[in-house]
Amino acid sequence: MATDSGTSTAAVGDVAATLDPADWDSFAVLAHRMVDDMLGHLRTVRDRPAWQPMPAGIRASFSGPVPWEGEGAERAYEDFVRTVLPYPNGNLHPRFWGWVHGGGTPLGMMADMLASGLNAHLAGFNQAPALVEHEVIRWLAELMGMPAGASGILVTGATMANVLALAVARFAKARDAGFDVREEGLQGRAGSRLMLYGSTETHAWANKAAELLGLGRASFRQIPVDDAYRIDVAALEAAVAADRAAGHLPFCVIGTAGTVNTGATGDLERLAAYCRAERLWFHVDGAFGALARLSPALTPIVAGIEHADSLSFDLHKWMYLPFDVACVLVRDPAVHHATFASSASYLAVVTRGVTAGGFPFAERGMDLTRSFKALKVWMSMKAHGVHAYAALIEQNVADAAYLAALIGADPELELLAPVPLNVVCFRYAPADVAAERLDALNAEILVRVQEEGIAVPSGTRLRGRYAIRVANVNHRSRREDFRMLAEAVKRIGRENAASGCPEPGALSPGTPRTRPDRA
Question: Which residue, 513, 501, 400, is CA-closest to 459?
Fold first, then answer.
């Protein structure tokens, strides 16, 4: 049996088996090497490709048998360095702008190590880590303009945060209508549906949530958007009125702060006023856009967010923290608690000892077992300060505007949507390339940009046209990186256009082909 710095021997006599190191000093050397290697990896990230495909041999190495006998911590770490470390999706890189993936921070990485070392259980308990999360929730509620005493919890991501918020809305508005959805469910409401509303640009979480919460996708009304990709409030009002006339129960409107496709933000002030007047729950999906509120210069874009009944946003997006940590805030702490509270003898509240104070976080969501996500938020906010985050968010928005200006001034490039925040959608579209070739051509350009390790934008479709999409929540990007992307798109576009590749229909936009693995 392996007995190196990371593996202990089985029990012999009075010596019990353990997973602690057999030799702590040797393990400490390995642990320091891990820290040094990761800091070096972060320090030199600009020197590497933005992304590189895995060679066939590396991919095949993940098809091994179950490791019934351990190889020891040093060998396991060597395997990580050889097969995992060089081949992530690239979101650490300064030219990663695909989707909305934050790049993490060195301090956040170390805070995660500290949290894992402490291994606190965050259902609650009488412990300092619970107070850290309470403080973080209080800070975030204040920054978002929520009232003192607003409730909240940290979860894995905005999808789960949004689902929890929708569960609170469902419970609250069903109760207002005279039935207890926790006790009765939705089984007996044939012919009368609880109705949910959001724009056609609402993130796909809403469909998943409607399914998961028993509402069904038919209960989610997708409202058209205007030319700026914001929800058409007049169309919303008409849809709610029609559903009420049909005997349904409208209960929630989703406003979006920063749509995933274009970064558009709805008229949150108007939506909030409408929901108050119509006694509808107003939820804001602010996955990344909510954090624009940290900047006084950008706060007007998300004005009205402070009136939300619930609000969800990721801290691993525009606060740049390592995955995964997101927040859901609920204006009314009583209804938040009532949605998820449960009782069990093993969770009895006492006034003294380790469980004094109860398990408040277990009664704000689905999870009983929760990790210490709050530590990286708490340490990062204390270390950097909110003003530093505001400045970086402003920088990201300014850099998106800079890229949009480059595109607007270049006859070979075409901007496909307004750029109100930090998302730029564009394509290669010179006058001498036939319109029917542009979708396939730009899908190929996107893959080539990624495969050559230049940058990682993503792709989407806007009004039937394929777009190269840059979503900038990257604290490592510089103006030179955006210039490099624009030049690479033109170069690759010219090469493919000249060669007649790809032909229209040869490539399915959104599912671009990949090249064979390269060594």
Answer: 513
* Distance of alpha carbon 55 from alpha carbon 317, whole angstroms: 30
The CB-based long-range contact list for 413-420 (8 Å cut-off, 24+ gap) reads: 413/486, 413/489, 413/490, 416/462, 416/463, 416/465, 416/467, 417/229, 417/261, 417/262, 417/462, 417/467, 418/228, 418/229, 418/262, 418/264, 419/262, 419/263, 420/228, 420/262, 420/263, 420/264, 420/265, 420/301
Q: Which two tokens stand for residue 26?
A: 């040797």
Tally the residues of the chain.
Answer: 519
CATH number of 388-499: 3.90.1150.170
Contacts of residue 423, Cβ cutoff 8 Å, sequence gap at least 6: 258, 259, 261, 262, 263, 400, 417, 469, 470, 471, 472
| CA of residue 468 relative to chain centroid, distance | 20
DSSP 8-state symbol, 420 = S
Mean pLDDT (whole number) for 219-233? 97
Tell me: the pLDDT tens digits for 346-356? 778 888 999 99
**CATH of the domain spanning 120-181+189-384:** 3.40.640.10
Q: Cα separations (Å) of 361 from 135, 141, 249, 351, 370?
A: 13, 16, 30, 17, 9
| 55/59 Cα distance (integer angstroms) | 6
Q: Please, are residues 152 and 330 in contact by the beta-carbon 8 Å criterion?
A: yes
Q: What are phi and psi of 80, to 5 degrees?
A: -60, -50
Helix (H, G, I), strand (E, B) or coil at 227: coil
The two structure tokens encoding residue 139: 């800070």
CA–CA distance, 209 with 389 (Å, rounded to integer): 31
In the structure encoding, which two tokens stand for residue 218, read together? 């038919």
8 Å CB contact between 268 and 289: no
What predicted TM-score, i.e. pTM, was given to this entire model?
0.92
Contact present, 458 and 469 (Cβ < 8 Å)? yes
Provide the pairing of β-strand 194-199 with 220-223. parallel
The pLDDT value recorded for residue 350 is 87
Query: How does DSSP classify residue 231?
Result: B
**Pairing relation of β-strands 249-256 and 220-223?**
unpaired
In the sheet with 220-223, reading across from the earlier edge strand, the strands are: 151-155, 326-330, 310-314, 281-285, 249-256, 194-199, 220-223
